Amino acid sequence: MTDRSRDALAVFATGALLGVAILVNYAVNRPGTFGLNYRVYHVAAEAALAGRDFYAVTPADSGYHYVYPPAAVVAFLPSALAESWVPGFLAMTAVSVAASAVAARLLAGYVESLGYDVGRLERALLFAFLLASAASAPSLGYGQVNHALALALVAGFVWLARDREGRAGVALAVPAFVKVFPAVVGLWLLRRRAWRAIAAAVGTAASLFGLGLLVFGVDTTRTYVTAALLPQRETADFVGGLAPGKSFVTLRRPLSVVFPNVDPVWYAVGAAALLAPVLAALYYRPRTVTDRHVAVHGTLVAMVLAFPSLLLYYAYTAFSLVVLLYDLPAGRGRQLFVAGALLANVSLSYGTLRETVRALPLDPATAQAILDAALPVLRLGTPVLWGSLLTLAGCLVYRVESGALSVPAPLRAVVGDD
Fold it and tell me: Coiled-coil segments, which residues (predicted)?
């Protein structure tokens, strides 16, 4: 077994094991978590069939509202044919399993097309990782659509690499249309000058938006923009510093903690300002396939870190994360990348840690000591944030090691620029 395979297995196995632990915790301590999001889809579909405002309804046991574009509710209309949300949730779970299986097959095939072997154990653990990693497990439990959207991103980038730009554009448009912030992948399409993919993506998004407008009308579309889309900026959560219990993975978190008294809009500006030079460096003259992979990884990580994304959206980086576990050459860059991938598997917020510590057989003093020690660290950032930044550092160091970038003399010993 090669070192590349060992690294990949370590990341896949630890991620899947931690994810299974999350699902077990839900089953034992928080059974109401299962179907939490799907119940929202179900009542929205019922309202849509009845001709009512599906942005105004909430499940009886939660205050969550439907926040996707009007056209997306069409996918959930079959759920409204059953009185209970459970059949639809089970169907959504089956879709997530199938999406993870297809994504695993696409990724394994793509990695092998680069000249690396992906054995049966690696394929099995890759599937487990995509389905139930610490980042993916919550979506599986909630009945979220993220597995399907992660598949769309994987398929889009695989097709883009194979010069099937039309297909790639359609696939990449779907998560951007549903969740909006994945539209950041358009930066890489622009850098690559993938004009057919851009045209296909814009056409797909416009067609879906038009479908919602045609089927549900102007008023519903306006409600989506004003009551669902714009409030998702969630700037109020960052006023005075993001609370440590909030499950966000974003550079806005440390900025809000360090600068608690500034207007939250500046956290968005600050996150973009920090990520822009990283992307510029990774986009600079990509000469090899690996260069393009690290540029894609920079794009996907920036997509997650620039916005107030939840921890579970780290799963959207699957394409470049998996590919680079095989494709990055040996060196300091690879070491940093693998370390970051392992750290990012620890999908933990202070709220989750507090819940976990209280469930353990610890005396109150010991439990409080653990929480007090972790609070300053988790207030500033989650392991997913620090792990993501480490993977970006690994990509930058790789580009220096490959000779694509030069660094000042005092840093050469650190990054290995000989």
Answer: none
